[in-house]
Design goal:
The chain is of the alpha/beta class. It is 33% helix and 16% strand. Helix 1 (38-49) runs parallel beside helix 2 and helix 3 packs parallel to helix 6. The structure holds flavin mononucleotide.
């Protein structure tokens, strides 16, 4: 099958993309002291030169004392980090690229192996990092208000620096997802509740604040997942009806694009249909969606962390779903981390030149 359908342009609000391929957000921890430097700018500029349609940055943390457990993860606040990000977006756009930062608060996480701790305790909905396991403090209502403000400020800064959109990291068991997930959200106030719809309130307020800060015409993507780093088999929504009560209020609050994180994009979301998560998100909300998960690679990314090498895989099943209109954009992680020229090779049909992904690619910002 030819990949040419992926090379149609895509327009939405502030986004004007030359193709449907998105670089997935990937933490690299190459920003000492939270400042993205010229190596980081070069890394993203090479993906822009390589014809990636939309580059989503690695997760970059908002202005809360314990939003990160790693001093080498970039900040999206403060003079020096924002100056660093300005250099990144300028170089990316000079190379013909379009880019959104992924705004992140880790919530309650385990400390890094280095033992370095942030200047305040990790914070989350109920102090829980995983079912029954305390790892930080429960956020007060003022903490919640300050956190929402920090996201809104970061989004406004992204727009002012010249980024083309923002993505909010609401997936993988980090702060926003800790509110969604019942085992980590045991609150008895208005931010908790037995239903997923009730536990969506924090994210709804956050999206509304971000929308207000960037105005109506700036694109906002929200990344969501059923799985968590704490539990790969976890599911927030067990039926399409439940998924609707989760995603529709977020669309109404201002989300333009749902970025639906799966480890393997071909896996159906619910019994009785082969639609994947991005397929359901688009069907239920009417909004464009991004699929992701082992596109063009033989093994999934968690296996890759355990040292498994992934080899190139055909795009036929992806194209079958794309042609059917299940989703609008396709995010590619490891294949693009390993090879800045991946998109051009696909466009030119040079599949014999694809290199796959091995763990050694994580060691450098090439
Ligand atoms: C090194 C690495 C770092 C990652 N960091 C992030 C991150 O900061 N934010 C995020 O939402 N996902 C992160 N992910 C998940 C990827 O965005 C993507 O969903 C996953 O790798 C599956 O896509 P792939 O199979 O094409 O690699 C990371 C993945 C990798 C491999």
């Amino acid at each position: 099958m030819t990949a040419s359908p992926l090379f149609q342009p895509f327009r939405l609000k502030s986004l004007d993309l030359k193709n449907r391929i998105v670089m997935a957000p990937m933490t690299r921890s190459f920003s000492p002291g939270g400042v993205p430097n010229s190596n980081v700018a070069g890394y993203y500029a090479r993906r822009a030169e390589g014809e990636v349609g939309l580059i989503i940055s690695e997760g970059t943390v908002v202005n809360r004392p314990a939003s990160s457990n790693d001093p080498d993860i970039p900040h999206f606040y403060g003079k020096k980090p924002l100056r660093g990000w300005k250099a990144v977006i300028d170089r990316v756009q000079a190379a013909g690229g379009v880019m959104a930062p992924q705004l992140w608060h880790m919530g309650i996480v385990s400390p890094k192996d280095s033992g370095r701790l942030p200047p305040a305790p990790f914070e989350g909905p109920s102090g829980l990092v995983a079912p029954g396991k305390i790892g930080g403090v429960a956020m007060t209502e003022p903490d919640i208000a300050q956190t929402i403000k920090a996201f809104a400020q970061a989004a406004a800064d992204a727009k002012a620096l010249g980024f083309n959109a923002v993505e909010l990291h609401g997936a993988h068991g980090y702060l926003i997802d800790q509110f969604f997930w019942h085992p980590t959200n045991q609150r008895t106030d208005g931010y908790g509740g037995q239903s997923l719809a009730e536990r969506t309130r924090f994210a709804v307020e956050l999206v509304r604040a971000v929308r207000k800060s960037v105005g109506p015409d700036f694109a906002i993507s929200l990344r969501v997942s059923q799985w968590k780093l704490q539990d790969y088999a976890a599911r927030l929504a067990t039926t399409p009806q439940e998924m609707e009560t989760w995603l529709v209020p977020l669309a109404e609050a201002g989300v333009d694009i749902f970025h639906c994180s799966q480890r393997r994009f071909w896996e159906p979301e619910f019994i009785g249909s082969d639609l994947n998560f991005a397929g359901w998100a688009k069907k239920l909300t009417g909004k464009p969606s991004i699929t992701v998960g082992s596109v063009g690679l033989s093994g999934d990314f968690l296996a890759a962390f355990q040292g498994e090498t992934s080899t190139p895989r055909s795009l036929d099943e992806l194209l079958r779903r794309f042609d059917r209109g299940d989703f609008d954009l396709v995010a590619v992680g490891r294949a693009l981390l390993a090879d800045a020229g991946w998109v051009r090779k696909i466009r030119e049909g040079r599949s014999f030149e694809l290199i796959g992904f091995g763990k050694e690619a994580l060691a450098t910002l090439s």
